[in-house]
Design a protein that fits this description.
With 91 residues, the chain is α+β, with helices and mostly antiparallel strands. It has 3 helices and 3 strands; from the N terminus they run βααββα. Strands 1-2-3 form a 3-stranded antiparallel beta sheet, with no helix packed on it. The chain is elongated. The two termini are 12 Å apart.
Length: 91
């Protein structure tokens, strides 16, 4: 089991307060229908990952493969050592 934080998408959003997203990016996410975020992925009131906004810059896999079946990420060679170490340490 993994526990992750779920954040709201408003002026008190932790991703905004902590400086991970700018005021403009927060507004862009809200305009796209985002009501919250999970591991950085902004989602709407139906739990669907929104298109655009800060989701375009994330490298983590989306919360659910059902949310964006066309979404694919590639791992570059620079990440191989870090991924191996994370798997060994069960991060």
């Amino acid at each position: 089991m993994r526990l992750v934080g779920v954040g709201q998408m408003d002026q008190a959003a932790q991703v905004y307060v902590d400086g991970f997203v700018s005021r403009e990016e927060l507004f862009e996410n809200e305009t796209a229908g985002a009501v919250g975020e999970l591991i950085g992925w902004a989602f709407d009131a139906e739990g669907r990952v929104i298109d655009g906004g800060t989701n375009n810059r994330l490298t983590a896999s989306p919360c659910s493969s059902r949310s964006r079946p066309d979404h694919r990420r590639r791992v570059g060679p620079a990440k191989v050592a870090a991924i191996k170490a994370a798997l060994k340490g069960a991060c």
